[in-house]
Amino acid sequence: MNGLTCPACEGVYIVKNGHAHTGKQRYLCRVCRHQFTLNHTRTPVSPETVTLVDRLLSERLSHRGICRVVGVSRSWFRRHLQSLIKTVPHTIELESPVVKKA
Q: Considering only CA atoms, which of 86, 63, 83, 82 is closest in space to residue 73?
């Protein structure tokens, strides 16, 4: 209709859907209901910052405090915690104790 395609489903039924907090136009796909902006400017978090966040997590600081000091968003921090949780094994393999008969 307006020359745009949805980045999620490649649908062409796109309508304007307000503005983001940065002032950029938001769009909505009428096929899959995906919302998006064109040419978003999200800068990736550097590996040094990720290492610093991991070190601060081991220091038992509050999550909001870590975000404030390091300068990352709380949504990025939550996604990072979820990725850390996926790398930790959730089952503990214990060997059964050997029972000696007297």
A: 63
